[in-house]
## 1
Amino acid sequence: MPAIDVHVHPSTRGLDSDACAYFKRDLNEVPRTEEKFAELFARHEVKALLIGWHPSTVKEGTRNSNDHVLDLVTGYPHAFAGVLASLDVGRENPDRLAEQAGALLRNPKVKGFKFHPPDQGFYPNDKKYYSLWEILASGDKPVMFHVGFTVLGANSEGGKGIGLDYGRPIHLDMLARDFPRMKIIAAHPGWPWQEELIGVVTHKKNIYVDTSGYLAEQLPELFQSAIRGRLQDKALFGTDFPYVDLVRALESFDKLGLKDTVKEKILISNAARLFGL
Ligand SMILES: [Zn+2]
């Protein structure tokens, strides 16, 4: 069955070594050229949304800047449906951020935004960012926030300065309350706060969730039953490629034994509707 993968990091500009180590990725399996990267998704009839990475914590090169992911979408439209753009909330001043957000919202290849509160060191419900959220909410493009555990800094002293608390799902609850028009996506099942996440997604109609960072059968059980049931219209298929392999993710999704109608929603139609694809 064709699919939309809402959570893809291009593997064309280097890989995160902490993440590769954590997922025990065989680096020979990861396509490094743009052509091979696009070809993998095209071959499996999966349209990817590519995540732009905020530059604050990237030490080497430009990595997956917004410009790089936009170029990939321009070059390989059969494989890539658009980008989730990043904004450097920790570094830029509010006026400059507003300007950048406006320009990105006007770009039709930008289908939404992605933030990583633990890595960027901010609370999504901090009032300091409300003027930015105001702009993004008015643009009607979904905004994704990383929730739960992160492989970034995992198993290193002090977690390389990363605090997991910024990624608690509950911080999205107030945000969703204060911006009811903002379509919010919680990226990942939120472990070790999967119960908190399910509570928040069930309560706030404008919060969605993706399945990324896990093979489907390894998703927390509670999360599996939620997406099978009450949350079947709000769950989106995502891999977290290249850290989770696309082919294995698709195969594992089949093993969940979902009803065809539910499977179709999670693999395609929920994302197609949400992102207007
Ligand atoms: Zn990711």
## 2
Amino acid sequence: MRQRKRVFSRGSVLYIRFRDADGNLVRKATNTDDPRKAEELAIELEAKALRQRRGLEPLPAKNGGGTLGDLMLKWGETLTGPSANGTRATVAKHVLEHEIARLTLQQLRPSDLVNFLADLKGISAATKNHVRGHISRAFNTAALKGWWHGANPVDKTKVPRVPVEEVDETEFAYLTTEEIRRVCAALAPKYRPRFAVSVFCALRKGELHGLRRKDVNLRTRRLTIARSWDRVPKNKKLEIVPIPTECSPWFEVALKDSEGHELLFPGPDGKMFSRDVRLAEVLRRAMVKAGIVDHWKHYCRKHGCDHEEQRPDSEQRTCPKHPGTKLWAKGVPRTINWHATRHTAATLHVQAGASQAVVQRLLRHSTPKQTARYTHLRADWLGGELERLSLGIDPAIIDSTSTQQPASSANDDGESRVDAGTSAVQSDNWPRSSTG
Ligand SMILES: [Zn+2]
């Protein structure tokens, strides 16, 4: 009797056709490209509608099953696994606190989501895409569990992923060895071991603070990375990385200061260090204190005055709106966050001669592509590296190459000034690459 096809396609989108709770034949876009999955969804939705017609299940709410906020909360409760808490926190912070959470699922249009993503301030494109993905998955779960039968508004054509910004080379997200020495001295002592260990061992912030004293073995010089904060790490694996000799004393200091605790870098109360502590601020303040300043912000402190100017120096200036009033100057470092210590580790290890493969292992990346994004190879360093290659081509060959001979040695028939015999001698005297 069922002759109609349950699944059909329009362009690149697969649609399903099924009878809803009111007995009407309806069609619905899916976000799968697997016809079998689409068919399964159609069968499930139709079976569910049939149960509803028979009164076995409550009918969907006429307002469209509540608001986006309700859906995100309900979906959050279904999450399990190591990232569940993090995902719920991201959703709470970026979706539930935004007015979009108050729209009902029926009101919500893809354009609302596009505007919402554009409206999210102060977070990276990657985080915006995480938020976008969470909303999309919530709708998929809603469809599977029968919470909501409308289309998923997170459609890749209507709500495109947010493009990841091009990395600005001038704003390199790592510190040079010279800057590290200065920042280390400028940091409050309690932050120095965290900083040094991060720069040597390329630890993520969560891995650093999840370290237990027993994870450090200074005899075998092995560091076990088994946790991120209090959970299993990102790649769900226990990893062991070597502790470089020069980094050992920093671990010794940390071990001494954490005596009596389980954690290597505990917070002031001995418990896990608070995730809310703005380590990026700690790092940036130390940079300013160390004189690593990108520019200076001069501002007026007179009540109600918003005058502010950016200057390359801290020269004393006065407010144009309040003649005679001196402006305050505040050093501003380049854009950098604590995660830059991991980029620093990758970059400096490669610059010090470690191969990309070794650094990939240290960063615990599964592909070289990931590692490549962490190694910022500046033109000045690259230039030096490229000096290492010597082909040893006889300079006489070079001299004889130009057709524009100097006036004194030019000859009319264009013959080379150098014969084979002399070129052989010169070739032997030509210095080899000094670095070999
Ligand atoms: Zn002023």
## 3
Amino acid sequence: MSDQHGSASLPGGFRALGDLTVTRFGYGAMQLAGPGVMGPPADPGNALTVLRDVVDLGITHIDTAGAYGPRVTNRLIRAALYPYPESLHIVTKVGAERDRQGGWPPARDPGSLRRAVHENLEDLGLDVLDLVNLRLGDAAGPRPEPVAEAFETLAELQRQGLIRHLGLSNATPEQIVEAQAIAPVVAVQNLYNLAHRDDDRLIDELARQGIAYVPFFPLGGFSPIQSSALSAVAARLEASPLSVALAWLLRRSPNILLIPGTSSRAHLRENIAGAGLPLSADDLADLDKIGH
Ligand SMILES: NC(=O)c1ccc[n+]([C@@H]2O[C@H](COP(=O)([O-])OP(=O)(O)OC[C@H]3O[C@@H](n4cnc5c(N)ncnc54)[C@H](OP(=O)(O)O)[C@@H]3O)[C@@H](O)[C@H]2O)c1
């Protein structure tokens, strides 16, 4: 199967992720675990069906993490999709664990990172992870902390052949530069959507360098984006606000890859259709005012 296998009809087409090729319309698997991203889902059969739909619809980029569940989402992905189509690329994250309260404490010492990479390999049933993001900061956002020791640990695992590409998540521009002195960074996954545009300059800089930018919470995460300007544009287009939010992200920059999350087969299809909405120059101008 060719690396570019996937539906030519997915909005956004294809994009390079390091030396891999993925559909710009990807899938975020976090919502498949139980409430609060802890434990198994109420309906595991539905989760497996959503994952099979993802692949059947031609999506070739799934975003996950060992911390989802923990270890629940990765095992669902394996149960639904193994053996994986050659075209499918599963991106995971390390650097945070889960505590009993459902918190996400950092786990970026070398031992924790090595353990997390091996657990991802085991749970996903892979010999090599296509892309591992080092997740920095905390739930409140990025923090200006050094990344060298943690990124060097992952670079060593990359040299050992366990990881193909490295990325960063929840990272500041300075941390990206610091990591790039250690090993190439092919993707950055940060919080960004129509209403949260702190990374505008960073996105343009990464586009200049050919690095993918993967916004998490593209729909607003646990509280969907709400804005009267967004609702007005959506009403004009007879579309949902969330559809417009996805279509806007695809138009925002060619290095943006979408990973909207859903546990619903219907929402998955709605989101694909929505991301393909044509937006006029007037629509874009109105939407551009929201995050500023
Ligand atoms: N790097 C990080 O630190 C980090 C942090 C958070 C997330 N992520 C990644 O980013 C991905 C995306 O983020 P996310 O899933 O948290 O947030 P999101 O994609 O912004 O939004 C997901 C939420 O929107 C709902 N939704 C999706 N489509 C919908 C539709 N068509 N109509 C109505 N509601 C809809 C989902 O509920 P339903 O299930 O009911 O559809 C879910 O509650 C995650 O899956 C994860 O892979 C990374």
